[in-house]
Amino acid sequence: MRRPVPPPLAGRRAPAAARALPRLGARLARPLHAAAPSEQRGVVALEYAIVLSLFLAVVIGMFQFGVIFTTQSLMDNAARDVARLIRIGTFTGTSGSYSSALTTAVCNDLTVSGLNLVPSCSSKIQIYVASAASSTPAGSGFKTLAPAAISNGVMTQTKASLSPKYDVILEIGYQMPWVAAFFSGNAMLTSTLAFQTEPY
Fold first, then answer.
1. What DSSP state is assigned to residue 129?
2. Which residue intervals define the domain TadE-like in the entry (predicted)?
């Protein structure tokens, strides 16, 4: 006796377990390492903060070094200009007769478009002048001279008397705050020249 053939499944609803299989397969196919959208946003924010801080550090460092190099260049120019005034006798005599005018001349050379790169220049700029009579042979006076001593950002600021045919050492110094902080207060910008005054 033949078994009755069951009616076709068309029109019948599949069991719940069969309907759940496609959704289960889709979840299993998702990569295990895929992060939720909120986690991805957190990672992006962290990476942005790290990159931004490094970028700002580089930009600020470039700006600070630019200011340092500009200040050093202006100090070199000021030293040359003041040395010329000393050579031709504009600044001569005892320190009391030329010290104030010397400081003013240096500070004027450190001003660019009305902006002085040495704040409170007259009190912050440090100037050292050493001199000795030049005998025979010429320049022998330098044997008795020495550059300024510097200790903890403070330079010797004595100013010797000036006369014709004198051997002179001129040194201009400035302890820039950023440089002092980086080198624990033991460094400063300096510009030094050695020359002989004219027989004015």
1. E
2. 42-84
